[in-house]
Each structure stands twice: as C-alpha cells, then as structure tokens.
TrEMBL record:
<feature type="domain" description="Type II secretion system protein GspF">
    <location>
        <begin position="174"/>
        <end position="300"/>
    </location>
</feature>
<feature type="transmembrane region" description="Helical">
    <location>
        <begin position="6"/>
        <end position="26"/>
    </location>
</feature>
<keyword id="KW-1133">Transmembrane helix</keyword>
<dbReference type="GO" id="GO:0005886">
    <property type="term" value="C:plasma membrane"/>
</dbReference>
<protein>
    <submittedName>
        <fullName>Flp pilus assembly protein TadB</fullName>
    </submittedName>
</protein>
<keyword id="KW-1003">Cell membrane</keyword>
<keyword id="KW-0472">Membrane</keyword>
<keyword id="KW-0812">Transmembrane</keyword>
<dbReference type="InterPro" id="IPR018076">
    <property type="entry name" value="T2SS_GspF_dom"/>
</dbReference>
<dbReference type="Pfam" id="PF00482">
    <property type="entry name" value="T2SSF"/>
</dbReference>
<feature type="transmembrane region" description="Helical">
    <location>
        <begin position="107"/>
        <end position="128"/>
    </location>
</feature>
<feature type="transmembrane region" description="Helical">
    <location>
        <begin position="284"/>
        <end position="303"/>
    </location>
</feature>
<feature type="transmembrane region" description="Helical">
    <location>
        <begin position="134"/>
        <end position="153"/>
    </location>
</feature>
Length: 309
C-alpha cells in the first residue's frame, strides 16, 4: 500500500468518524413520547438527587458529583436520540444499578482507553516494535471501544447469573403460594405470606412490589407481571397472566401454580443437565489435547533421529 493510499484511507476514516460523532450529538426531531420520557427522567433525577443528599458521606465527593453530571448528560443524549437500550436497562434493573452511573462508567472507561492505547505504543516503541505514527491512533481508538464495551459484558454476565437465581426462587415461591392457598388463605394473603419467608434479594423485590401494589391500588398479580417485564423474567409474566385468569377460583389457582412450579423445576433440571454435559465435553477435549501433546512429546525424539539418519 502506497503512502498516498494510506493517507487517503486514514483521512476518510477520520472524516467518517467525525461525521458520525456530529450526527450523534446533533439533536434530532423530538416526538411526544420522547418529551414525556424526558419529563419522567427529570423527576427521577430529582428524586435521586434528594436521596443522594441524604446518603453516605463518601457518595458526596467530587468524583461522585462529576460521575453524576457525566451520567446525566449522557442519559439526556440517549434520550434525545431515542436509544432505549431496553435489554440493558432490564439487566441494570435486575442488578439494582443506576442507568446514569452505568453510562458514566462507560464514558470514563472509554476516555481511559484513549490514554491506554498510546501508553501501550510507548512500551512497544521502547522495545523497538513499531515506528509508524498511526499505530498509537489506532490503539487509542481500539482500546477506547473495548473499554467502553466492558461494562456491558459485565452487566450482562452478572444479570444472567442473578436471573437464574430469581427463577429458582420464583419456582419455590409458587409452591409456597400454593401451600398457603391450600391452608385456606386468600390469594392476596397467600402472595404476601409466601414473600415473607426469607430476606433474600429476590423475595424482597417481590415483597416490595406487592406492598407498592397495595398502596397504589393495583392488583398484585398485575404488579408481579410488571416486575417480570422490568426484570426480563418471563416466569413472573406468565404467572401474572395465569393468576389474572383464575384469580376467583382457589382450586384452579392452586392447580395452576403447582403445575407451573413443576414445569419450572423440570426446566431448571434440564438446564443443569445441559450445563453439566457441556462441562464434561470441554473436559474431554482438554484430555484429548493433553494426550496429543504427550504423544508428540514421545514421538518427537524418535522422529528427529529417523529424519537425521
């Protein structure tokens, strides 16, 4: 590749990047839904600010204030552009993390990646690897993108593990509700009593949802369905739909909850068996590679001696 072609390609990529940056930062046409969402975001931010004023002392430092401002600005940008990120918001809801703090973490890590790339190039330049001035630019952009995406990977991994725990708890919760119904309690009392058997995070979320439903006048099964939609747990949404259909018949409610709990246990058992099968296959591959390496270790001296002859 000639120097002219390399320079033209670099200029084209830089121009494309600047165009995409300006296009992303330029305010687009705002719809009514975006305006209402912005008003809700402002209310949530005011409530979070009031809670932060009553928080712990270490949360009121300059770094936390800077992080809050960056998160608020980036959240406004996402809101103006219509980037909803529903699955990511659902993962953050499962982990009980703030959307603004998450965005601030992504931006700060991306900025750190811009400096980490040239730092790597300086180490390589000291040992004599690479002299082109374009290398630190590409390293900075690559590290910035990688660092910017790292929080997404972490959140998705942690949220998947927490959802598995939540599904196990929901299966046990359905059995407890069915037992309370068999004991003569009504459906609202059974839902409330079953959520009070433990102080774990999953039952605590269910208990808080039921308490909010009583305050707002919403039906408890509808509130559980909304919780399942926010957390991305289909089992809670299915339970809400089934309870809404048979809420007036205690016998049908018990049968529905018992069959759904059994289905969840079978599904969980199938997932555990599948995970165990994958681990056994990976162990088999590792053993085969170890045997192949041992055979090479045994055959190599004899083969070298034969070829030398």
């Amino acid at each position: 590749m000639t120097p002219f072609t390399l320079t033209a390609l670099t200029g084209a990529l830089v121009g494309l990047g600047l165009f995409l940056l300006v296009r992303a930062l330029a305010p687009g046409k705002r719809s009514t839904v975006a305006s209402v969402a912005e008003i809700d975001a402002l209310r949530a931010r005011a409530a979070a600010h009031q809670q932060g004023a009553q928080g712990t002392p270490e949360e009121s430092g300059r770094v936390a204030a800077l992080r809050a401002r960056i998160g608020a600005r980036v959240a406004e940008l996402y809101l103006r552009q219509g980037w909803e990120q529903r699955s990511l918001r659902s993962d953050l809801e499962v982990l009980e993390r703030s959307w603004e703090k998450f965005l601030a973490t992504k931006v700060l890590l991306g900025a750190a990646g811009l400096f980490f790339g040239p730092f790597l190039f300086s180490i390589g330049w000291l040992i004599g690897f690479g002299r082109s001035p374009l290398i630190p630019l590409w390293l900075a952009l690559l590290c910035a993108v990688v660092f910017f995406m790292l929080p997404d990977l972490e959140v998705r991994r942690d949220a998947a593990a927490k959802r598995r725990d939540l599904r196990r708890v929901v299966g046990a919760y359905l059995d407890l509700v069915a037992m309370n119904l068999a004991g003569g309690r009504g459906l609202p009392e059974a839902l409330k009593a079953a959520s009070e058997v433990s102080d774990g995070w999953a039952l605590r979320r269910i208990r808080d949802t039921l308490a909010d439903a009583r305050i707002t006048g919403q039906s408890q099964w509808a509130a559980l369905g909304d919780l399942g939609a926010r957390l991305g747990v289909d089992e809670l949404k299915d339970m809400s739909a089934s309870l809404a259909l048979v809420a007036d018949d205690g016998a049908k409610v018990r049968a529905s909850l018992a069959s759904r709990a059994e289905t969840m246990r079978h599904r969980e058992l199938a997932e555990i068996e599948g995970s165990a099968g994958e681990k056994s296959q990976s162990m088999l591959v590792a053993q085969l590679m170890l045997c192949a390496g041992f055979l090479v270790f045994l055959i190599y001296p004899a083969a070298m001696r034969v070829f030398q002859i």
